[in-house]
Amino acid sequence: MICDRAGTVVHGYFDNELDAAGAAAFERHLEQCSECVDALDDLESLRSSISLAQLYERAPAPLRKKILASLGPEHPLAALPSRTVWRWLAVAAAFLLIAYASWRVTPVARSSSYESVLAAEIVDAHLRSMQPGHLTDVISTDQHTVKPWFDGKLDFSPPVQDFGDQGFPLQGGRIDVVHGRSVAALVYVRRKHFVNVFIWPVDEQDRAPSSGSQQGYQWLEWRKGGMEFCAISDAAPSALEQLQSLLTSN
Amino acid sequence: MNSPVAEEGCNVLDSQEQARFETLVLPHLDAAYNLARWLLHGGADAEDAAQEAMLRAYRFFNGFRGGDVRAWLLQIVRNTCFTWMQKNRHGKDTDEFDEEVHGLPSPTPEALAIAADSRGRLTRALESLPSRSREIIVLRELEGCSYKEIAIITSIPIGTVMSTLSRARRQLQLALTGPANKESIHDL
Asked: Which of A80, A142, A225, B40 is least surrounded, with the fewest CB atoms within 10 Å of its CB?
């Protein structure tokens, strides 16, 4: 006999996150459910243990100094972390150059910090994938090889299709990280231009494609069937639109 | 949008924006470091990631439209850390939590109190959690974030914060009383 509230609502109550009515209802429930009373005790004991242990770690003073020094008007990005691998330095340098150049030409309309961060992450991920040996974790033009490869590596199953006959042969796939979550990346090639299609599940409704460009890369982003798709490439924007209609036609 | 600052990207902020950044964002450096420290198991990685996240925040500061600046910064920190983990494939990091290994199914408050008595034991238990669980514990218990802030920072729907937190706390309770810590309990 397990009270399902002992694993859920008790946390909301403990954290003061229930509305007044919810809290009152739970208090009535507490009067007759010893399991929830125990769960609440456990939570209180856990919290006091954590607070007694003083686990919070403040930033070391040298780090604060280093950051302050690197944020000056002179060269804010001069002091990159010392242990960052060289490949990253090279990518970052190229990225900054291209970013600077393209921003000079076309100021990017950043409607929100979320979107600008996401677009920058997509570009970062695309650039990373272009580094030698980083493009694909599973190399195959066969969708029946690529799709099962994702099984067990992600908490969702991305749609995988080869469009070789339509001019977009599948090259393979890999796992990448976008916005802090693992995503599927499908790699297609279009007349020697690589296209990365990043896919991850979302709760939101389907959404028509929106496009943009950043640092000389085109991206096209849409939502369909509970999945967010973001295609990015240095190919022409029309190529991405073709690929988008292929991916959504099924 | 066509101001000189926007055209030059956000690599350099003008003096007014620079001052705003220093007033609004820099005070949250401790929060940024603390999250990075727990996600990356401390050390130089955490310092580098916190610094990288700060520089990213600086770069994107023009895009920050106001609101909860700590949540905005911590969102950048955790994304930086997860990318870092993925790239460096932390061997010791896992997304899974093996309840078998961590043993005892229902810890008693007494056992919890004893096990959690020392800072070292709590640190070990917290570090043994999967990164997603560790993150939500740190945000809620150390940083005092609301469910809404946690949803913003971790990009999970607000409706699932409670159940995610519930699972993470259960894992932490198990880790505190599991075999890894059981020896020391028996020693007492």
From this structure: A225
CB spacing of A17 vs B154 below 8 angstroms: no
Q: What is the CATH number of domain B99-187?
A: 1.10.10.10
- Segment holding A139, helix H or strand E: strand A138-139
Residues of A in contact with B2 (CB under 8 A): 107
Specify the pLDDT at position A250: 65
Backbone angles phi, psi at A227, to 5 degrees: -125, 140
The answer to whether ipTM exceeds 0.85 is no
Location of each CATH 1.10.10.10 domain in chain B = 99-187
Q: How confident is the model at residue A212 (pLDDT cuts 50, 70, 90)?
A: confident
Q: What is the pLDDT of residues A39-78, one digit of tens each?
A: 999 999 999 888 888 899 999 999 988 888 887 654 444 3
Kindly list the structural domains of chain A, giving each domain's residue range(s) and its CATH number in brackets, ordered by start: 4-53 (no CATH), 108-248 (3.40.1000)
- For CATH 1.10.1740.10, the residue range(s) in chain B are 4-88
- Helices and strands of chain B, counted as H and E runs: 12, 0
User: Residue A79: its chain B contacts at CB < 8 A?
Assistant: 51
B29: left (phi over 0), alpha (psi -120 to 50) or beta: alpha
Average pLDDT over chain B reads 79
Q: What is the pLDDT of residue B120?
A: 85
Per-residue model confidence as pLDDT tens digits over B63-83: 787 788 999 999 999 999 999
Calculate the alpha carbon distances from A221 to A170, A228, A238, B83, B144 in Å.
19, 7, 13, 21, 35
Nearest CA in chain A to B121: A53
Across the interface, which of A47, A50, A107 has its CB nearest the CB of B2?
Answer: A107
Query: Which residue's structure tokens are 């770690």?
Result: A57
Best B38, B54, B106 member to test A by mutation, with max A CBs in 10 Å, is B54
- Residue B16 DSSP SS3: helix
What is residue A138's three-state secondary structure?
A: strand
The model scores a pTM over 0.80:
no
Look at the domain B4-88 and name its fold. Answer: Rna Polymerase Sigma Factor; Chain: A (1.10.1740)
The identity of residue B72, as a single letter, is: W
| Per-residue confidence band for A113, with pLDDT thresholds at 50, 70 and 90 | low
**pLDDT at residue B109 greater than cutoff 90:** no
Q: Which residue of B51, B61, B94 is the best one to mutate when testing the A interface, meaning the one whose CB has the most A CBs within 10 A?
A: B51
